């Protein structure tokens, strides 16, 4: 009998895990990969599309292109997960498994920020980021706010990156003098684990006249008065609001009992990523392991789980513990990218090493994306 592994979610985590299992076993394993979407989009591509650097079709990587021995992809919605029985119900049928890997990512709760839907924009979901491509050309003057609405959010550098790219975008259109840019963030510095990166981001903000509002969240928008209300009651006027919406655990995961409530990410063993249910793992943004919510961490955690499954099937030793390490590329604008290498779990506290922005890192970031497409889809796009 082949071992059946059911992988829920074909994002960074699910794609990496599936690829490793197929590489290790080929047709000798039965991997079921489920996603409601028809293709994968890198998080950073959302910024590229909204600022007109890429076309939507160029950054969508269709799942129909996945041709991997041992892997069956189903485009369908996960309706329920029974972690005790390792049974998943989807619109395409019920899947029983030997191992279940939950890689369903984070959902957004736009209604948790009153006024956001009516009076602002978010750029974290694919449709909203792509729609901004047609909104930004109409922004001519006044204050723009890039505002974080909840404490736990994907890709902590992304709000700063959006500010740098907005600065370049407005400069190229000759509108920068008529506009202001502010970034509202719940941290004291832009990238808390790496003081060097934070210093560089703050220096680049200062050079470009971007205001950093620290230790604050956007709690609501008043669309009539065009003001954003912060957690301490401060009001900031805006002509353009680009929000990072409140993140939440997908409802189907809460209903499964794997998470206690919508803001309690799935608890896992920090070393193995296993949930309290034997043979049920949670990788990537959906878990509460304590690393940032970013693709590189989703990928790293998926690798540890894949190695554990491979060891279990082959009867080898258990893999080394998850270390929570990853490299994040940071867009600084001016056609330059910086890099921060962070380590969350090896030492007593998180550390981060910074590489200054350069054109060489622009090319390295492009190679990073290309290598994933090559590995997951078998070809570059
Ligand atoms: C603007 C922006 C920029 C970013 N830049 C970077 C970056 O430069 N580097 C980096 O490492 N990370 C970046 N990220 C973060 C990165 O995109 C995520 O952290 C990463 O995708 C998480 O991977 P995951 O596998 O956990 O979840 P995801 O990639 O979100 O995948 C989850 C999948 O589950 C599917 N799904 C959810 N619910 C269901 C259901 N009920 N039924 C079926 N399918 C379902 C979804 O369709 C999705 O495909 C960025 C994010 C944003 C928003």
Protein architecture, described:
This protein is of the alpha/beta class. Helix content is 30%, strand content 28%. It is built from 10 helices and 23 strands. The chain has helices at 12-25, 43-50, 56-59, 116-119, 126-135, 158-172, 195-208, 251-255, 295-314, 359-377, and strands at 4-8, 30-35, 39-40, 61-62, 71-75, 78-82, 87-90, 93-96, 99-102, 107-109, 121-122, 142-148, 179-184, 210-213, 218-222, 227-230, 235-237, 240-244, 246-248, 280-282, 325-333, 336-343, 351-358. The longest helix is centred in the last third of the chain and has 20 residues, at 295-314. It is globular, with a radius of gyration of 21 Å. The two termini are 36 Å apart. The model has no long low-confidence stretch (mean pLDDT 96). The chain binds flavin-adenine dinucleotide. Flavin-adenine dinucleotide is lined by residues 9-14, 34-37, 43-44, 46-47, 77-78, 103-105, 123-124, 154-155, 158, 250, 252, 284-286, 293-296, 298, 328-329.
């Amino acid at each position: 009998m082949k071992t059946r592994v059911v992988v829920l979610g074909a994002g960074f985590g699910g794609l990496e895990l599936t690829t490793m299992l197929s590489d290790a076993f080929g047709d000798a394993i039965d991997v079921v990969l489920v996603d409601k979407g028809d293709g994968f989009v890198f998080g950073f591509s959302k910024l590229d599309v909204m600022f007109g650097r890429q076309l939507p079709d160029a950054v969508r990587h269709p799942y129909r292109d996945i041709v991997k021995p041992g892997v069956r992809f189903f485009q369908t919605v996960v309706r329920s997960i029974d972690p005790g029985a390792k049974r998943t119900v989807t619109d395409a049928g019920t899947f029983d498994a030997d191992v279940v890997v939950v890689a369903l990512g984070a959902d957004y709760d736009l209604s948790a920020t009153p006024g956001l839907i009516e009076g602002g924009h978010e750029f974290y979901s694919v449709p909203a980021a792509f729609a901004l491509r047609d909104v930004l050309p109409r922004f001519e003057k006044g204050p723009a706010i890039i505002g974080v609405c909840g404490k736990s959010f994907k890709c902590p550098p992304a709000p700063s990156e959006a500010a740098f790219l907005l600065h370049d975008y407005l400069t190229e259109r000759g509108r920068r003098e008529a506009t202001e840019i502010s970034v509202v963030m719940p941290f004291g510095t832009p990238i808390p684990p790496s003081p060097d990166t934070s210093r560089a981001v703050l220096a680049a903000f200062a050079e470009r006249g971007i205001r950093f509002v620290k230790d604050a969240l956007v709690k609501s928008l008043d669309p009539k008065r065009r003001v954003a209300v912060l957690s301490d009651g401060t009001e900031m006027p805006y002509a353009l609001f680009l929000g990072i919406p409140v993140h939440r655990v997908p409802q189907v995961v809460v209903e499964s009992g794997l998470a206690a409530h919508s803001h309690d990410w799935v608890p896992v063993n920090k070393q193995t990523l296993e949930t309290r249910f034997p043979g049920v793992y949670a990788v990537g943004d959906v878990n509460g392991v304590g690393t940032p919510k970013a693709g590189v961490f989703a990928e790293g955690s998926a690798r540890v789980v894949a190695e554990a499954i491979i060891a279990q099937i082959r009867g080898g030793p258990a893999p080394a513990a998850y270390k929570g390490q990853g490299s994040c590329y940071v867009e600084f604008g001016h056609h330059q990218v910086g890099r921060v290498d962070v380590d969350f779990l090896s030492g007593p506290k998180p550390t981060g090493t910074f590489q200054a922005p350069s054109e060489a890192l622009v090319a390295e970031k492009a190679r990073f994306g290309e290598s994933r497409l090559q590995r997951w889809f078998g070809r570059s796009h």
